[in-house]
Design goal:
The protein is 27% helix and 17% strand. With 95 residues, it is α+β, with helices and mostly antiparallel strands. The chain has one domain (4-9, 19-93). A two-stranded parallel ribbon has the order 1-2. Strands 3-4 form a two-stranded antiparallel ribbon. It is globular, with a radius of gyration of 15 Å. Bound molecules: flavin-adenine dinucleotide.
Length: 95
């Protein structure tokens, strides 16, 4: 299982404090974009807005649960070892 965080240390872009991101849809693609904007782009999460037209977040990979009991993906998913980016941010989300 790879960890890109151990390999790459992205420098903070000049003026990132004054930039904002607007992402359409709350699927895994958007959440991944937000994750990398925060971690590698050094953007403050408060400057990221996600628009979702449904009343459930997560798109095709939606889940259910809460902070106390944990979360579960509603549909079955095959998560293979070579999904390096996915594993990287799933592991980081847990900490
Ligand atoms: C039953 C099933 C099983 C699957 N199994 C696997 C698996 O085992 N392994 C695997 O890797 N992948 C699997 N997939 C595929 C994987 O779940 C999807 O490829 C992935 O979740 C897609 O993510 P996404 O963010 O690109 O798009 P989506 O999850 O489709 O998210 C798009 C979001 O954008 C919102 N949206 C769209 N237009 C607008 C708009 N104009 N304004 C506001 N919001 C908007 C939608 O409501 C949605 O929430 C499976 C998919 C399904 C359905």
């Amino acid at each position: 299982m790879g960890s890109y965080q151990l390999k790459y240390h992205a420098k903070k872009p000049e003026g990132i404090e004054n930039k904002k991101a607007y992402l359409v849809g709350s699927g895994i693609a958007t959440l991944a974009a937000a994750f990398f904007l925060i971690r590698d782009g050094h953007m403050d999460g408060k400057n990221i807005t996600i628009f979702e037209r449904k009343n459930v977040n997560g798109g095709a990979l939606d889940g259910a649960g809460n902070l106390e009991d944990g979360y579960i993906i509603r549909g079955g998913r095959e998560m293979e070892e070579h999904y390096e980016c996915t594993w990287t941010y799933l592991v980081i989300f847990q900490h």
